[in-house]
Amino acid sequence: MATKVGVPIPPSIPAPLAAYLRALAKRPLLTKMITGGVLSFLQEPLSSSLAHLPPPEPSPTVSRLSPELAYLLARLHVSPRALKLALYGFLVSAPMGHFLVLMITKAFSGMQGAKARVGQILMSNLVAAPIQVSAYLASTAIIHGARSPQQVVGAVQAGFLRAMKMTWITSPAAVLFAQQFFAPELWAPWFNLVNFCLGTYFGVVIKRQQALKGKGKGKDEKAEKKDL
């Protein structure tokens, strides 16, 4: 078994993880797309639960097939929005991350040593990260109901600085942690976990902001009715 030619997978790695690493070596882009879709799908119900949002109404379409299943999915916060996020992870996030990594790798091809490692970290945080954060914020804004370009741009501007600060803190720390404690073949699953945690955190923040806006609108409407 090998993650790439000449790099064997240690026998101590559990079989499911070894199978994933083999798939990653054989079909890197497709494996990353499937992983991105699954993790993005899971972020939606998890972030909704952590944000303490009430469960959505059961889907009428699913209710026609099975009311019990529709109720269960609603209680688990599994909604059409989760499916849209899965498409984002599959079609946008994973391919974009894959090709950005290739770009950084090619930029430092043949270079070794501390300067090359520092250069890769800087390029990742100053070039790749802003692109990924902007795409994530724009995509989630559309998924959450933004329709006009102004709404999408406003959502990106509102969350960009906070997201970048979190990325600039966690990304170098994640790289240093991986360099210190993980073999190179385990870096891909490790960074998937880090990105999943970050995406879930950003999802919680966005949902709490939307919940506060919704409460504010509700109070304003009640005040208007009292004035009338």
From TrEMBL:
<keyword id="KW-1133">Transmembrane helix</keyword>
<keyword id="KW-0472">Membrane</keyword>
<dbReference type="Pfam" id="PF04117">
    <property type="entry name" value="Mpv17_PMP22"/>
</dbReference>
<dbReference type="InterPro" id="IPR007248">
    <property type="entry name" value="Mpv17_PMP22"/>
</dbReference>
<keyword id="KW-0812">Transmembrane</keyword>
<feature type="transmembrane region" description="Helical">
    <location>
        <begin position="121"/>
        <end position="143"/>
    </location>
</feature>
<feature type="transmembrane region" description="Helical">
    <location>
        <begin position="188"/>
        <end position="206"/>
    </location>
</feature>
<dbReference type="GO" id="GO:0005778">
    <property type="term" value="C:peroxisomal membrane"/>
</dbReference>
<protein>
    <recommendedName>
        <fullName>Integral membrane protein</fullName>
    </recommendedName>
</protein>
<comment type="similarity">
    <text>Belongs to the peroxisomal membrane protein PXMP2/4 family.</text>
</comment>
<feature type="transmembrane region" description="Helical">
    <location>
        <begin position="85"/>
        <end position="109"/>
    </location>
</feature>
